[in-house]
Specification:
By secondary structure, the chain is an alpha/beta fold. The protein has a single domain, classed as Vaccinia Virus protein VP39 (Rossmann fold, 3-Layer(aba) Sandwich), CATH 3.40.50.150. The model has no long low-confidence stretch (mean pLDDT 95). Helices cover 28% and strands 28% of the residues. The strands form 2 sheets. A 7-stranded mixed β-sheet has the order 5-4-3-6-7-8-9, covered by helices on one side. InterPro entries: PCMT (IPR000682), SAM-dependent_MTases_sf (IPR029063). Catalyzes the methyl esterification of L-isoaspartyl residues in peptides and proteins that result from spontaneous decomposition of normal L-aspartyl and L-asparaginyl residues. It plays a role in the repair and/or degradation of damaged proteins. It holds the Pfam family PCMT. It is found in: Cytoplasm.
């Protein structure tokens, strides 16, 4: 396992800065978070490359640039109570937990959730609540959220999630099947304003939950 990751993480943060990430807090957290802990040990040597990597169960740990970009979008709106759909490895969760007051994270695959929980505990990140369940349904009992981040591509806009936003809240979500686009949705009362940010590639947001 990688012991001294700081130098590699610093280079990764520099790459992200060159790619247009401007939020200093986001860059600082990327630089201080040991990404190699969130993937199989056999892939740890690739942890600080700007690439998505498999984590098992047909899932991936997102490309650092995408993690930073989506996080930066939430930070632009000063989100502090965030719902994450798709805990996955827990890396995006860890980044958010160091920037907001509380993260509520939903994962449909129980084994991935268990592994993520152990990683976050190891990093002393305790402002995270986790739920094993269907991401399409969100976490209504903990709503409303001023930020929602979805780390898998929905085939259509999930109306249940939109209803869990606060007035003025923002959701960052990839939507589409063959072609996926990253969309930022902001709520104004009963109206929702959408902004499309370009093509992306994520695993699909699958309904239901599994052991």
């Amino acid at each position: 396992m990688i012991q001294n990751f700081q130098g590699m993480a610093r280079k990764l943060a520099d790459k992200l800065r060159a790619e247009g990430i401007t939020n200093a807090a986001v860059l600082d957290v990327i630089q201080s978070t040991p990404r190699h802990l969130f993937m199989p040990e056999s892939l740890a040597h690739k942890a600080y490359e700007n690439t998505a990597l498999p984590i098992g169960q047909g899932q991936t740990i997102s490309q650092p640039l995408m993690v930073a970009s989506m996080t930066q979008l939430l930070m632009q709106h000063h989100c502090q109570k965030v719902l994450e759909i798709g805990t996955g490895s827990g890396y995006q969760t860890a980044i958010l937990a160091q920037l907001v007051n509380h993260v509520y994270s939903v994962e449909r695959i129980a084994e991935l959730q268990y592994q993520a929980k152990r990683r976050l505990k190891k990093l002393d990140l305790h402002n995270v609540s986790m739920r094993h369940g269907d991401g399409w349904q969100g976490w209504a009992s903990k709503a409303p959220f001023d930020g929602i981040i979805v780390t898998a591509a929905a085939s259509s806009m999930p109306m249940e999630l939109l209803q869990q936003l606060t007035d003025g809240g923002v959701m960052v979500i990839p939507v589409g099947t063959t072609i996926q686009r990253l969309i930022v949705v902001r709520r104004f009362g009963d109206e929702f304003e959408q902004k499309e940010l370009g093509e992306v590639k994520f695993v699909p947001l699958v309904p239901g939950a599994t052991i």
